[in-house]
Amino acid sequence: MTVRVMLISPAMNAALREARFDGDSPLDRSGRESARAAAGAVPATGLVLSGPSGRCRETAEALGLAARTEPALGGWDLAGWAGRRLDEVAAAEPAEVAAWLGDPSAAPHGGESLRDLVTRTGAWLDSLGGPDAPGASFLAVAEAAVVRAAVVHGLRLPAEAFWRLDVAPLTLTQLSGRSGRWNVGLGRPLTAPPAE
């Protein structure tokens, strides 16, 4: 069965503006307003999911979605770096940051390696559309790292390609296919249709 998976990256928040390792901070006013304005551009679908972070859940709500929280869509677990800014970590732990950026199996922060993130996200993606699935169309609000990991898995890219993918806030990435064979449509901005 062909499955359609639409992934929406959450709206902007202060942690994202500051390049802070944090997926659980709430949306700021600008992020909430942007998500509300984009609500009319969200495509209709079957099952609606949300990553467990506050940012994902608030984005789903602002988009007018009644989303079920999906633990498998949790953000990248960066453990000891959580809450810190990238520039601070790079200044304090330059060798560790270099290892993290250069080796997909490295987890100097004590959390998930990039390879682990891609494997976890890929396992979720490949589980969709099976005999127990409620439908062939899914929409999920998921952290940008999860969206990037899904693309890496779906296209069977090397894990290092993750670093070459950008996912802007409030964009839609679509994967269609099935386990072992996915096609990807990247980064469509969610903008409301013009008023008539």
Automatic annotation (TrEMBL):
SUPFAM superfamilies membership = Phosphoglycerate mutase-like
* UniProt superkingdom: Bacteria
Matching InterPro entries = His_Pase_superF_clade-1, His_PPase_superfam
TM region(s), chain numbering: none
Identification of the protein by name = Histidine phosphatase family protein
Q: What is the phylogenetic placement of the source species in the record? A: Bacteria, Bacillati, Actinomycetota, Actinomycetes, Kitasatosporales
